[in-house]
Specification:
There is one protein chain. By secondary structure, the chain is α+β, with helices and mostly antiparallel strands. 24% of the residues lie in helices and 37% in strands. The two termini are 33 Å apart. The relative contact order is 0.13.
């Protein structure tokens, strides 16, 4: 990520190339459920209260600390040229959207440039008050954006890329997806001994992720952890799993460490199942086209059972 401060113009310029097609990158910046996946630097999380992506519309959202402190902001969209550029005014507010008079407004100008196999996002951020802009940088703005882009995107993209490689056909199937705090390999060696089957495509680890100039190196502490593993058990059923370490912002406990993952053949069937099963439950990730190339959603049903709905290939 390139990051340049121009004190004379009171402007920050950020450039970042994403290894994804323009449509997916644009969607990642303009869809609230996807924005909330990566916008906040870990261990903070982003929560969008409302968003109307149109000229004159606003996004009202909070950055939430691990202690539960909420820092609210709005983005008021002033110009939109689909898949090319959009501009917004960013203002610190309270939870009801009332502006904080102690801080000025930032002007954001985002340009999306198709580079064949990647998309360049070129951002200009301007404030009338240079001191506030410098304070924003000093309090971790640059580091936070880099961490949000790199750590979360790297983890999700790599995991789902492996799932696409492992599923070579588009037949519907049901799998069980497990999350472990760091002992996936121990658990799956045990399961392998019980079911007397072999792993599909071996064990993929975080350390196996190829070096990429657009991503930071994988932390040494998680290189040997399991990124993705699949084990057939009985009745053509497959167990899948990943390590979800704290370094990636995850806190696991009994109840959020296991999902039934349904992979329908079509998007239409995925939506039908998602809508029916989630009625009366708690949707944690609305069904949507994700920037890592899947049609995906998560929820707990009204009985507290966790589900994933996933269509790997767009139909």
């Amino acid at each position: 990520m390139e990051f340049t401060l121009n004190k004379e113009t009171k402007t920050v310029n950020i450039k970042r190339a994403f290894a994804a097609e323009l449509d997916l990158v644009w969607e990642a910046w303009t869809t609230p459920e996807i924005l909330d996946q990566w916008w906040a630097p870990l261990p903070m999380v982003s929560k969008t209260k409302s968003m109307d992506f149109k000229v004159g519309g606003k996004r009202l959202y909070a950055m939430i600390t691990p202690e539960g402190q909420e820092r609210w902001s709005t983005q008021e969209y002033t110009s939109i040229n689909p898949k090319t550029n959009f501009k917004f005014l960013s203002t610190f507010v309270d939870k009801d959207g009332n502006a904080n008079s102690e801080f000025s407004t930032s002007e954001w100008d985002l340009n999306f440039i198709d580079q064949n196999e990647s998309t360049l996002v070129d951002i200009y951020i301007k404030r009338d008050n240079l001191a506030e802009l410098e304070l924003l940088i000093e309090t971790g703005f640059k580091t936070g954006m880099a961490a949000a882009f790199d750590n979360l995107e790297q983890y999700i993209e790599a995991k789902f890329r492996l799932r696409q490689q492992n599923k070579t056909e588009n037949k519907a199937r049901v799998v069980t997806y497990l999350n472990f705090p760091g002992n996936t390999e121990e658990a799956f060696l045990f399961y392998k001994s019980v079911f007397k089957t072999d792993f599909i495509n071996g064990i993929q680890r975080f350390g196996d992720i190829p070096p990429d100039a657009n991503h930071p190196p994988v932390a040494e502490s998680i290189k040997k952890m399991v990124l993705h593993i699949e084990l057939p058990i009985i009745g053509n059923h497959v167990l899948m799993a990943t390590d979800a370490p704290p370094e990636m912002g995850f806190t696991l406990n009994r109840g959020n460490n296991m999902h039934i993952c349904l992979e329908p053949e079509t998007r239409e069937e995925a939506k039908r199942i998602f809508d029916a099963l989630s009625e009366g439950g708690n949707v944690t990730m609305p069904l949507a086209d994700m920037f890592f190339g899947a049609y995906f959603g998560e929820f707990s049903d009204k009985f507290g059972i966790n589900w994933m709905i996933n269509v790997v290939t767009k139909n």
